[in-house]
Predict the 3D structure of the following.
Amino acid sequence: MKQWDIYTYDPGYGSHPAVILSHPDRVDNKPLVEILVCSSQQANRPANPMEVLLDLADGLNWETICKCDLILSVNKIDLHQQRGQVTIERQRQIISTIIRSHNWLL
């Protein structure tokens, strides 16, 4: 398990892809990690300004909306079945979308 991996997470309303955001040291040494939850359904619309589309290049079965406006802290044992890894290009998109969606100024 490492930063930018995509795992399956079930928050209680069905299984969803989840992107691990936490620093590699946290992933290796702590029980809790930060994630972004993605849609479990195939995207049937463009991403809004607070979302990024992930797809086959990231290891998913279809275009999937990744929600960047809410970072969750979850126990690593609640993540199962690695599904893929976010591409470098989409990592950059996610980082800028997180910054924008939280109204963080640089």
Remarks:
- The CA atoms of residues 8 and 96 lie 24 Å apart.
- The chain has one domain: 5-101.
- The beta strands are 5-9, 16-20, 32-37, 51-54, 64-67, 72-75, 79-85.
- The chain has two helices and seven strands.
